[in-house]
Every structure is written in C-alpha cells, then in structure tokens.
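User: Can you predict the 3D structure of MarR family transcriptional regulator? Sequence below.
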Amino acid sequence: MKTTNQAPAAAVPLSDYLCFAVYSANLAFGKAYKPILEELGLTYPQYIAIIALWEEDNQTVSGLGAKLFLESNTLTPMLKKLEAMGYLERQRDPGDERQVRISLTKSGRRLREKALKMNPVETGLASDEFAKIQTAVVTLRNNLIKSVQNGE
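Assistant: Sure. Here are the predicted structure tokens for MarR family transcriptional regulator:
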C-alpha cells in the first residue's frame, strides 16, 4: 500500500456544491408553491403533470413520462389519483391498444383558470436573469442525463 505525506485536501463546504444549490432551490420552490398547491388541492408533481396536459392534451402516458422525466411506476399512480379527483381520463388508444392516452376533463381545464387567477410565485429575478438561469438549468439537466447515459 502506497502512502503519501500530503495533508488531505481541505473539505469543500456544503454551500459550494452545485448539487446542494439545486437541491435546496428545489426545496425553496416547494415552499413557495405550497399555498398555491394547497388551494388547488394538488401535490407539486401533480401540478406539473396538469401543466403538461394544459400544454398538450390527449397525450400518451409514455409521452408524458418522457416530458416529466418520470418512470411509469411513479407516473401511473399519480395519474390514477388525478383521475379519481376528476381532473383527467385515461383511455386505451384505439389505434394502438398498448398505449394509454390521457385527456383533461372539464374540471381539469377549469383548474387552469383557477391557477391563472392565483398569485404567481415570485423569483425576484429580472426577465433576462430568469431566461439565463432557466437556460443554464436546462443545459445542466441535459448534460447530467447525457453523462448518466454515456456511463451505462
């Protein structure tokens, strides 16, 4: 076993880790959205799924899962809860019975009107800062996904 006389590298403080900055920002988003989510009666993942359906209704479960970066074992129970709440319907695709399509109900579409009337979450960022950070976070996410895929 080889030994060295070098002192161990100085410990990096938690606050200097990018992964911690992203993690703690996500927690802060959850707290900021809490009043809106409570008013809507949704969890944060349910809210994101509903937003994706407002953007594109009548999509497949697999397509929605890809958009949300969720596996079907996480997405399906959430969709079943949203269906039980009356916000969406799940039906087999008549053109391909292997696919399940998700569509918003009237209640699911009305939820958008209610959400739009609520106060938005304030980030405190100017629009140009917001755009730069959003682009940087998306780039970071995509690079991490590529890194994981290349490592498999």
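Helices lie at 18-40, 44-55, 61-68, 72-84, 106-117, 127-151. Residues 14-120 form a domain with the Arc Repressor Mutant, subunit A fold (CATH 1.10.10.10).
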